[in-house]
Amino acid sequence: MFPFEVSHTDSDSHARTGTLVTPHGTIRTPAFMPVGTCGSIKGVTPAQLGETDTDIMLCNTYHLALRPTADVVATFGELHDFIGWSGPILTDSGGFQVFSLAQLNRIDDDGVEFKSHIDGAVLTLNPEQSMDIQNKLGADIIMAFDQCPPLPSTPEFVTEATERTIRWARRSKVAHTRDNQALFGIVQGGLDVDLRLRCLDAIVEIGFDGYALGGLSVGESFEEMSTCLAGVAHKMPTDRPRYLMGVGMPRDLVAAIRSGIDMFDCVLPTRNGRNAYAFTPDGFLKMRNACHKLDASPIDAACDCYTCRTFSRGYIRHLFLANEMLGPTLTSIHNIRFFQRLMNRIRELIPQGKIERIHDEYPVTRENSKVE
Amino acid sequence: MFPFEVSHTDSDSHARTGTLVTPHGTIRTPAFMPVGTCGSIKGVTPAQLGETDTDIMLCNTYHLALRPTADVVATFGELHDFIGWSGPILTDSGGFQVFSLAQLNRIDDDGVEFKSHIDGAVLTLNPEQSMDIQNKLGADIIMAFDQCPPLPSTPEFVTEATERTIRWARRSKVAHTRDNQALFGIVQGGLDVDLRLRCLDAIVEIGFDGYALGGLSVGESFEEMSTCLAGVAHKMPTDRPRYLMGVGMPRDLVAAIRSGIDMFDCVLPTRNGRNAYAFTPDGFLKMRNACHKLDASPIDAACDCYTCRTFSRGYIRHLFLANEMLGPTLTSIHNIRFFQRLMNRIRELIPQGKIERIHDEYPVTRENSKVE
Fold it and tell me: Of A31, A162, A175, B263, whose CA is between 20 and 30 Å from A205?
C-alpha cells in the first residue's frame, strides 16, 4: 500500500494537504490530474506537462484498450514507457466511457457488451477484463470497475447501479494481481447521501488503497453536487486518498477540497484550451474575441507558464483565427498550469488555516464568472 | 550591410561554409530555414524550434499581410516580438503565394490584383506595398517583390516575368526604408541559364545585401533544377549570401550546396511531419504503417531530437492512428532536427574537403529512396 500522509487538516473545514508516494514519484495533495485520453495530453508533450508542475496524469482504459490495446502497450513495458511520461499515472476502469461514449448492447451482472465508438466492433468489459487491462497498462493507481448512472436517473436505477458497483468492486479486488499498483474502490449512489454512505461502507469493507466518488459532475447542479460531497467526502477513510472523479471547474475543486477530497481529474483545461477558452483567476478569456486583437499582455500577467512568459493575447487570438495548432497547445499549457497553480496555492493556504482566502485570490472559485 | 564571411570553400565543388550576422543572431551557412507560414511553425513552439538548433526561420508576407495584417503585427513591436521567436527571421515578398495560392485578377507592371484565398477580398500587391509590409513586419532579411512563373511556361512568358522581376527589384530597393533589415534581390529566368545569368547581372547591378534564386522547385525535374543551379549559383556574387527559395528535398539541398548555395527554406519537414512522414538518413518512414506497431526503437537511433530521445515508432504510429495532435508535433520536431543535423554535418565536412561523404552518411541525399 503506497504511503499516504496527511500533514495538515483545516480546522474550519475538512480540507487537508499531504503526500501520496507512488513507484513513479510523490503526489502532493490536493492534486489535479490532467487527462491524456489516448495516452497523450492533447497537444502537450510530456516535457511541457512537466513544466506545468503536474505530479500525476490520468489515461483512459477504454480508449487505450480499443487502441492500441493493452497487449500492444505491454510490449513496450508499461504505459509510462509507451507514452514517455516518467511520473505517476492513474488509469480509470473504462466503465465511465462505456456508459457515456459507446453504444451499450447489454448490461448485466457479468459486465457490459458494447459497440466500439471507433469502428462499431462488439466488445465486452467486466471487472476481470478491466483489471487485466489495467494490470497490463501498469499505471501506478488503477480503478475498480463500476457502473456510473447518468443524472437524473430513477432511484431504482441508481440503487441497482450502486449495488452492482459493490459486487463488481469485490470482483475487481480479487482479479487485481499486481503489488506495485494501488487499486482504488469507487463509491456510487447518485445524489442520495444515504445510498452513498451505504455504498461507502460496503466498499471500505472490501478494502482498497484509496477511495473515489464516481457518478458526480454528470448533469447535476453545483449545489446538488456540493450537498452530496458535504455529506459523504469527510466520512471516507481519513488514512487513504479520496478522489473525486471527472471534476471539474475551479469552484467545484475548492468546494470538494473543503469537503475533504484529495484528488481530481478533468479534461477541462485541455478541452477548453483547444476551444480557445483560457482560465484566469477572474474567469474565462475567450481568446478568439476581437478585444484581444491588439492586446500585448499575456493571458494572465501573474502566471509563470511558458505561454504567459512568451506570448501575448493578440498573438494567441491570431493563432486561433488562423487555425494554427499552436493556439490549442499554448492555451492548454496555460490552462493546465492555471489548475496546478490553483492547487499549489490551496496546498499553501491549508496549513495556514486560510483556505477561504482562495476565493479572494481566485474569484473564479466563487462562481463561474466570465470576462473577455 | 550584415557581415557575411565565407570561412571555407570546397576545392572540388562550389560548396562553402560561413556565417551571416544579423541583428537577432548569427546564421551558420549553409542554413536551412523552417517555414512559419502564418507566424508559427505548425505545431512547434519557438522553444521547441530552438532545441532543433535552427538559426533562422521564414515567415510568409502574403499570409501575415492578410491575417493579422502588418499594421497589427507592428503594434506589438516587430514580428519577433509578436511570434515569440528571438532569433533571425526572413520574410518573403508575398509574390510566390499571390501567384500560387490566390486567384489572380490582373498582373501588369504596377503589380498584381488578386482575391484573398481566405475570404475572396480583392487586394493588390506591388513592390512598394511589399516593402512597406516587410518594413513593418521587421524581419532581419526581406525579399524584393518578384514574379515567379510556374514551370513549364513558354519562353516568352518566362522572359516577360524575368524582365518584370528586374523592374520590380529596382522599385523594391528604392522603396525599402529600414537600415536594420537586409534586402535580398531575386533572380528569375526559369530553366534558361542564359536568361538567369542576364537577370543575375541586372539584379547585381541594382545591388542587394544578398541574392536569391526564385522560381525553382516549381514543377521541374531534379536534373533540370540541378543543371540550372550548376550554371548559375557559382556566378552569384561570392561576397554575399546566396539563397535558393523553397527548396527542398535532402538531395536537392546537397546538389544546391555543391553548386554554391548558402541558404534554403522549405515546408517539407513540417508538412511531411503532419502527414506522418519522418525523415531518416536512409529515406522516409511512413509512421502510420503497420510495421511500426510494436517497434520500440525511435524514428532514428542516431538522432538527438526530443522525439527520438523520448518516443518509440510504435507510440508515434499510435498517435497518428488516434488523430492525436502530438503525432504531427513530434514528427515535425524530428524532421526539423533532421534537416538541421544534415546541414550541420555538411558544415563540418566542407572544411575537411569531404562533402561527398554526405552521400554515404545520408543515402537519402543520393535519391529519394523510401523505407518503412
Answer: A31
